[in-house]
Amino acid sequence: xxxxVSQGCQGGCATCSDYNGCLSCKPRLFFVLxxxxxxxxxxxxxxxxxxxxxxxxxxxxxCAKCKADCDTCFTKNFCTKCKSGFYLYSGKCLxxxxxxxxxxxxxxxxxxxxxxxxxxxxxxxxxTKKGKxxxxxxxxxxxxxxxxxxxxxxxNPCPATSESRKCIVQxxxxxxxxxxxxxxxxxxxxxxxxxxxxxxxxxxxxxxxxQNREQRExxxxxxxxxxxxxxxxxxxxxVDTAH
Length: 243
Fold this sequence. Notes:
Blueprint (H helix, E strand, L loop, with lengths): L4 E2 L6 E5 L3 E5 L4 E7 L2 E7 L6 E5 L4 E5 L4 E6 L2 E5 L4 E3 L2 E3 L6 E4 L4 E4 L4 E2 L19 E7 L2 E3 L12 E7 L8 H60 L7
Antiparallel strand pairs: 1-2, 2-3, 4-5, 6-7, 8-9, 10-11, 12-13, 14-16, 15-17
């Protein structure tokens, strides 16, 4: 250390020298040596850089180097991230993962092997043949299931998700589309015919009521004339003067 030690330092240094940089740091800061060519310069940082881990002591806080295969570490013997080409497992950086584990190239970690998992089979479908459920005796029925867990690279592959088998049904004829259409047309005609019949009956009823009403009105008009004629005949009748 250069003997020229200064107390009025910059950048978080408590003491420093023109040749070696920081010699000690202010409280809570970490002291680390940075190499510049053949020379090492002391600096004070709030956290340790990549490849270093921090240790706190009563007199000074220091940044120490991680192992050569560690990119970042918690302590010297516990890595949190490995350098390229290594896989992290339990704080260590390995070139090859242990048995029962597989290398995850995305996270660069050794992870557990995941096997495929499928759901339970669905019930068997109705017996069909060429998309129909009638007009045949022998057909096929199917059932399906879903994949609920996809496997990892070394995991067991997924099984088939569909299954079919032969089936036998009681033979029955398919209803023809034309026949069904004819039946619907006949029902429609019958319905229209019934409606027409009801309409005619209602019309006849209205005509009969109108005729009865007109007849009653005519009768009411002729009755007063008859009474007048009867009175006139009484006036023209001979008077008995025998008395």
